[in-house]
Give the backbone structure.
Amino acid sequence: MDVLQLIKKRRSVRKFKKKTVSKEVIDNILEAARWAPSGLNNQPWRFMVLEKERKDLLADYTHYSRIIKSADKLIAVFIDKKSSYNHEKDLMAIGACIQNMLLFIHAAGLGACWLGEILNKRKQIQKVLRIPENLELEAVLALGWPEAGIKKSKRKDLKKLIIK
Amino acid sequence: MDVLQLIKKRRSVRKFKKKTVSKEVIDNILEAARWAPSGLNNQPWRFMVLEKERKDLLADYTHYSRIIKSADKLIAVFIDKKSSYNHEKDLMAIGACIQNMLLFIHAAGLGACWLGEILNKRKQIQKVLRIPENLELEAVLALGWPEAGIKKSKRKDLKKLIIK
Protein backbone atom coordinates (compact mmCIF):
# COMPACT_ATOMS: atom_id res chain seq x y z
CA MET A 1 0.00 0.00 0.00
CA ASP A 2 1.13 3.45 -0.99
CA VAL A 3 0.19 5.95 1.71
CA LEU A 4 -0.22 8.79 -0.80
CA GLN A 5 -2.68 6.72 -2.81
CA LEU A 6 -4.51 5.78 0.39
CA ILE A 7 -4.79 9.47 1.31
CA LYS A 8 -5.93 10.49 -2.16
CA LYS A 9 -8.45 7.71 -2.64
CA ARG A 10 -10.21 8.08 0.71
CA ARG A 11 -13.70 9.51 0.32
CA SER A 12 -16.59 10.32 2.60
CA VAL A 13 -19.05 7.43 2.61
CA ARG A 14 -22.65 8.30 3.46
CA LYS A 15 -24.53 5.06 2.72
CA PHE A 16 -23.74 1.71 4.28
CA LYS A 17 -24.61 -1.96 3.98
CA LYS A 18 -26.57 -3.72 6.70
CA LYS A 19 -23.45 -5.49 7.90
CA THR A 20 -21.82 -5.33 11.30
CA VAL A 21 -18.38 -3.84 11.92
CA SER A 22 -16.70 -6.22 14.36
CA LYS A 23 -15.41 -5.20 17.78
CA GLU A 24 -11.92 -6.15 16.61
CA VAL A 25 -12.06 -3.61 13.77
CA ILE A 26 -13.42 -0.92 16.10
CA ASP A 27 -10.54 -1.61 18.49
CA ASN A 28 -8.06 -1.15 15.64
CA ILE A 29 -9.72 2.10 14.56
CA LEU A 30 -9.34 3.40 18.12
CA GLU A 31 -5.78 2.10 18.23
CA ALA A 32 -5.01 4.23 15.16
CA ALA A 33 -6.69 7.19 16.88
CA ARG A 34 -4.74 6.72 20.08
CA TRP A 35 -1.37 7.01 18.33
CA ALA A 36 -1.96 10.47 16.89
CA PRO A 37 0.44 13.24 17.88
CA SER A 38 -0.66 15.95 20.32
CA GLY A 39 0.96 18.99 21.90
CA LEU A 40 3.08 17.91 24.89
CA ASN A 41 1.66 14.43 24.14
CA ASN A 42 -1.43 15.44 26.16
CA GLN A 43 -3.71 13.07 24.22
CA PRO A 44 -6.88 15.10 24.77
CA TRP A 45 -9.12 12.71 22.79
CA ARG A 46 -11.85 10.54 24.27
CA PHE A 47 -14.20 8.23 22.37
CA MET A 48 -17.68 6.86 22.64
CA VAL A 49 -18.81 4.06 20.33
CA LEU A 50 -22.54 4.12 19.63
CA GLU A 51 -24.65 1.47 17.97
CA LYS A 52 -28.28 0.49 17.57
CA GLU A 53 -30.78 2.56 19.61
CA ARG A 54 -28.13 4.78 21.16
CA LYS A 55 -26.71 5.53 17.72
CA ASP A 56 -30.13 6.37 16.35
CA LEU A 57 -30.76 8.80 19.23
CA LEU A 58 -28.30 11.17 17.51
CA ALA A 59 -30.28 11.18 14.27
CA ASP A 60 -32.62 13.75 15.83
CA TYR A 61 -29.84 16.31 16.13
CA THR A 62 -28.65 16.69 12.55
CA HIS A 63 -29.87 17.32 9.02
CA TYR A 64 -27.88 14.19 8.13
CA SER A 65 -30.03 11.73 10.07
CA ARG A 66 -30.03 9.38 7.08
CA ILE A 67 -26.26 8.91 7.35
CA ILE A 68 -26.56 8.10 11.04
CA LYS A 69 -29.37 5.63 10.50
CA SER A 70 -27.53 3.95 7.64
CA ALA A 71 -24.22 3.66 9.56
CA ASP A 72 -23.49 0.53 11.57
CA LYS A 73 -21.78 2.50 14.31
CA LEU A 74 -20.79 6.01 15.34
CA ILE A 75 -17.62 7.09 17.04
CA ALA A 76 -18.20 10.30 18.98
CA VAL A 77 -14.94 12.17 19.61
CA PHE A 78 -14.54 14.43 22.62
CA ILE A 79 -11.87 16.69 24.07
CA ASP A 80 -11.24 16.07 27.74
CA LYS A 81 -10.86 19.63 29.02
CA LYS A 82 -8.99 18.28 32.06
CA SER A 83 -6.20 17.18 29.67
CA SER A 84 -6.16 20.47 27.78
CA TYR A 85 -3.40 23.06 27.84
CA ASN A 86 -4.29 24.95 24.65
CA HIS A 87 -7.65 24.62 22.94
CA GLU A 88 -6.36 25.45 19.43
CA LYS A 89 -3.64 22.81 19.65
CA ASP A 90 -6.07 20.29 21.12
CA LEU A 91 -8.38 20.81 18.15
CA MET A 92 -5.52 20.21 15.72
CA ALA A 93 -4.59 17.05 17.64
CA ILE A 94 -8.21 15.89 17.43
CA GLY A 95 -8.06 16.48 13.67
CA ALA A 96 -4.91 14.36 13.42
CA CYS A 97 -6.58 11.65 15.50
CA ILE A 98 -9.68 11.67 13.28
CA GLN A 99 -7.55 11.48 10.14
CA ASN A 100 -5.77 8.40 11.55
CA MET A 101 -9.17 6.78 12.00
CA LEU A 102 -10.40 7.77 8.52
CA LEU A 103 -7.26 6.39 6.89
CA PHE A 104 -7.41 3.14 8.82
CA ILE A 105 -11.13 2.78 8.05
CA HIS A 106 -10.47 3.27 4.33
CA ALA A 107 -7.52 0.86 4.33
CA ALA A 108 -9.72 -1.76 6.01
CA GLY A 109 -12.29 -1.54 3.21
CA LEU A 110 -14.78 0.29 5.40
CA GLY A 111 -16.16 3.76 4.88
CA ALA A 112 -16.88 6.73 7.09
CA CYS A 113 -18.27 10.21 7.12
CA TRP A 114 -16.92 12.94 9.43
CA LEU A 115 -20.03 14.74 10.69
CA GLY A 116 -19.49 18.33 11.74
CA GLU A 117 -22.88 20.01 11.38
CA ILE A 118 -24.12 17.93 14.32
CA LEU A 119 -21.98 20.11 16.61
CA ASN A 120 -24.69 22.76 16.31
CA LYS A 121 -26.61 20.55 18.77
CA ARG A 122 -23.62 19.78 20.97
CA LYS A 123 -25.32 20.68 24.25
CA GLN A 124 -28.42 18.63 23.57
CA ILE A 125 -26.36 15.62 22.48
CA GLN A 126 -24.14 15.80 25.54
CA LYS A 127 -27.26 15.87 27.68
CA VAL A 128 -28.98 12.93 26.00
CA LEU A 129 -25.79 10.83 26.16
CA ARG A 130 -25.12 11.94 29.76
CA ILE A 131 -21.59 13.13 28.98
CA PRO A 132 -19.63 14.53 31.95
CA GLU A 133 -19.00 18.29 31.87
CA ASN A 134 -15.24 17.96 31.38
CA LEU A 135 -15.82 16.42 27.94
CA GLU A 136 -16.73 18.45 24.85
CA LEU A 137 -18.04 16.85 21.66
CA GLU A 138 -15.85 17.78 18.66
CA ALA A 139 -16.89 15.36 15.92
CA VAL A 140 -18.93 12.29 15.11
CA LEU A 141 -17.74 9.63 12.67
CA ALA A 142 -20.45 7.53 11.03
CA LEU A 143 -19.01 4.28 9.75
CA GLY A 144 -19.80 0.93 8.24
CA TRP A 145 -19.33 -1.17 5.15
CA PRO A 146 -19.79 1.12 2.13
CA GLU A 147 -22.88 0.61 0.01
CA ALA A 148 -22.10 2.55 -3.13
CA GLY A 149 -19.13 2.93 -5.46
CA ILE A 150 -16.36 5.45 -4.94
CA LYS A 151 -17.39 9.03 -5.49
CA LYS A 152 -15.20 11.70 -6.97
CA SER A 153 -13.91 14.63 -4.99
CA LYS A 154 -11.93 17.72 -5.85
CA ARG A 155 -9.18 19.77 -4.30
CA LYS A 156 -7.69 23.15 -5.08
CA ASP A 157 -4.54 23.13 -7.21
CA LEU A 158 -1.35 22.98 -5.19
CA LYS A 159 -0.24 26.23 -6.85
CA LYS A 160 -3.12 28.04 -5.17
CA LEU A 161 -2.10 26.74 -1.75
CA ILE A 162 1.55 27.69 -1.74
CA ILE A 163 2.76 31.05 -0.46
CA LYS A 164 6.03 32.14 -1.98
CA MET B 1 2.66 -1.39 4.22
CA ASP B 2 0.20 -1.68 7.08
CA VAL B 3 -1.34 1.70 7.85
CA LEU B 4 -1.78 0.88 11.54
CA GLN B 5 1.91 0.05 11.84
CA LEU B 6 2.80 3.24 9.98
CA ILE B 7 0.67 5.27 12.39
CA LYS B 8 2.10 3.53 15.46
CA LYS B 9 5.74 3.70 14.40
CA ARG B 10 5.79 7.37 13.43
CA ARG B 11 7.81 9.44 15.89
CA SER B 12 8.82 13.06 16.21
CA VAL B 13 12.30 13.53 14.77
CA ARG B 14 14.30 16.45 16.14
CA LYS B 15 17.76 15.91 14.66
CA PHE B 16 18.52 15.62 10.97
CA LYS B 17 21.31 14.71 8.58
CA LYS B 18 22.89 17.36 6.37
CA LYS B 19 21.11 16.02 3.34
CA THR B 20 18.66 17.78 1.08
CA VAL B 21 15.01 16.81 0.76
CA SER B 22 14.24 17.02 -2.96
CA LYS B 23 11.58 19.26 -4.46
CA GLU B 24 9.81 16.13 -5.70
CA VAL B 25 9.45 14.80 -2.15
CA ILE B 26 8.23 18.19 -0.89
CA ASP B 27 5.62 18.23 -3.68
CA ASN B 28 4.40 14.81 -2.57
CA ILE B 29 4.22 15.91 1.07
CA LEU B 30 2.05 18.84 0.01
CA GLU B 31 0.01 16.56 -2.23
CA ALA B 32 -0.75 14.41 0.85
CA ALA B 33 -1.66 17.60 2.74
CA ARG B 34 -3.95 18.84 -0.01
CA TRP B 35 -6.12 15.71 0.09
CA ALA B 36 -7.12 16.01 3.74
CA PRO B 37 -10.82 16.32 4.55
CA SER B 38 -12.28 19.65 5.67
CA GLY B 39 -15.72 20.95 6.61
CA LEU B 40 -17.72 21.72 3.47
CA ASN B 41 -14.47 20.84 1.64
CA ASN B 42 -13.31 24.43 2.32
CA GLN B 43 -9.61 23.44 2.31
CA PRO B 44 -8.49 26.28 4.60
CA TRP B 45 -4.80 25.24 4.56
CA ARG B 46 -1.99 27.22 2.96
CA PHE B 47 1.70 26.32 2.99
CA MET B 48 5.04 28.05 2.91
CA VAL B 49 8.20 26.00 2.40
CA LEU B 50 11.25 27.56 4.05
CA GLU B 51 14.89 26.60 3.61
CA LYS B 52 18.34 28.01 4.24
CA GLU B 53 18.43 31.61 5.54
CA ARG B 54 14.68 32.04 5.53
CA LYS B 55 14.29 28.84 7.53
CA ASP B 56 16.89 29.95 10.04
CA LEU B 57 15.08 33.26 10.55
CA LEU B 58 12.46 31.33 12.51
CA ALA B 59 15.01 29.92 14.95
CA ASP B 60 14.88 33.23 16.83
CA TYR B 61 11.22 32.71 17.73
CA THR B 62 11.27 29.42 19.60
CA HIS B 63 13.00 27.56 22.41
CA TYR B 64 13.51 24.80 19.84
CA SER B 65 15.88 26.71 17.57
CA ARG B 66 18.16 23.67 17.39
CA ILE B 67 15.44 21.64 15.67
CA ILE B 68 14.92 24.40 13.11
CA LYS B 69 18.63 24.76 12.42
CA SER B 70 19.08 21.01 12.10
CA ALA B 71 16.09 20.57 9.75
CA ASP B 72 16.60 20.74 6.00
CA LYS B 73 13.30 22.52 5.45
CA LEU B 74 10.27 23.88 7.27
CA ILE B 75 6.69 23.76 6.14
CA ALA B 76 4.73 26.58 7.74
CA VAL B 77 1.00 25.85 7.77
CA PHE B 78 -1.55 28.66 7.75
CA ILE B 79 -5.32 29.00 7.81
CA ASP B 80 -6.66 31.29 5.14
CA LYS B 81 -9.33 33.18 7.05
CA LYS B 82 -11.01 34.05 3.75
CA SER B 83 -11.75 30.31 3.30
CA SER B 84 -13.00 29.86 6.85
CA TYR B 85 -16.56 29.21 7.92
CA ASN B 86 -15.89 27.84 11.41
CA HIS B 87 -12.58 28.27 13.19
CA GLU B 88 -12.87 25.11 15.34
CA LYS B 89 -13.58 22.95 12.29
CA ASP B 90 -10.80 24.64 10.34
CA LEU B 91 -8.34 23.79 13.11
CA MET B 92 -9.41 20.14 13.05
CA ALA B 93 -9.00 20.12 9.26
CA ILE B 94 -5.52 21.60 9.66
CA GLY B 95 -4.72 18.80 12.11
CA ALA B 96 -5.88 16.19 9.60
CA CYS B 97 -3.79 17.89 6.91
CA ILE B 98 -0.69 17.88 9.16
CA GLN B 99 -1.21 14.22 10.02
CA ASN B 100 -1.32 13.37 6.30
CA MET B 101 2.04 15.09 5.91
CA LEU B 102 3.56 13.40 8.97
CA LEU B 103 2.46 9.96 7.78
CA PHE B 104 3.74 10.52 4.27
CA ILE B 105 7.03 11.87 5.63
CA HIS B 106 7.47 8.80 7.82
CA ALA B 107 6.55 6.40 5.00
CA ALA B 108 9.15 8.10 2.78
CA GLY B 109 11.90 7.43 5.34
CA LEU B 110 12.08 11.07 6.34
CA GLY B 111 11.39 12.53 9.75
CA ALA B 112 9.56 15.57 11.06
CA CYS B 113 8.68 17.44 14.19
CA TRP B 114 5.40 19.33 14.60
CA LEU B 115 6.36 22.59 16.31
CA GLY B 116 3.61 24.23 18.34
CA GLU B 117 5.41 26.34 20.92
CA ILE B 118 6.55 28.64 18.11
CA LEU B 119 2.95 29.92 17.84
CA ASN B 120 3.66 32.03 20.93
CA LYS B 121 5.53 34.29 18.49
CA ARG B 122 2.97 34.08 15.73
CA LYS B 123 2.71 37.83 15.19
CA GLN B 124 6.44 38.40 14.99
CA ILE B 125 6.89 35.47 12.59
CA GLN B 126 4.08 36.66 10.33
CA LYS B 127 5.74 40.06 10.23
CA VAL B 128 9.24 38.78 9.44
CA LEU B 129 7.90 36.49 6.71
CA ARG B 130 5.60 39.24 5.37
CA ILE B 131 2.50 37.06 5.54
CA PRO B 132 -0.75 38.70 4.37
CA GLU B 133 -3.30 39.45 7.11
CA ASN B 134 -5.82 36.90 5.91
CA LEU B 135 -3.41 34.09 6.79
CA GLU B 136 -2.85 32.84 10.34
CA LEU B 137 0.08 30.61 11.26
CA GLU B 138 -1.11 27.36 12.93
CA ALA B 139 1.92 25.09 12.90
CA VAL B 140 5.45 24.62 11.64
CA LEU B 141 6.80 21.24 10.54
CA ALA B 142 10.57 20.83 10.70
CA LEU B 143 11.69 18.02 8.42
CA GLY B 144 14.65 16.26 6.92
CA TRP B 145 16.47 12.95 6.83
CA PRO B 146 16.51 11.59 10.40
CA GLU B 147 19.85 11.51 12.18
CA ALA B 148 19.21 9.25 15.14
CA GLY B 149 17.47 5.94 15.73
CA ILE B 150 13.79 5.60 16.47
CA LYS B 151 12.77 6.85 19.88
CA LYS B 152 10.08 5.33 22.04
CA SER B 153 6.84 7.07 22.80
CA LYS B 154 3.88 6.28 25.00
CA ARG B 155 0.15 6.60 24.83
CA LYS B 156 -2.63 6.23 27.39
CA ASP B 157 -4.32 2.83 27.52
CA LEU B 158 -7.35 2.56 25.27
CA LYS B 159 -9.45 1.69 28.30
CA LYS B 160 -8.80 5.14 29.71
CA LEU B 161 -9.96 6.82 26.51
CA ILE B 162 -13.31 5.10 26.05
CA ILE B 163 -16.50 6.46 27.56
CA LYS B 164 -19.11 3.83 28.16
Remarks:
- The beta strands of chain A are 45-51, 73-80, 111-115, 135-144.
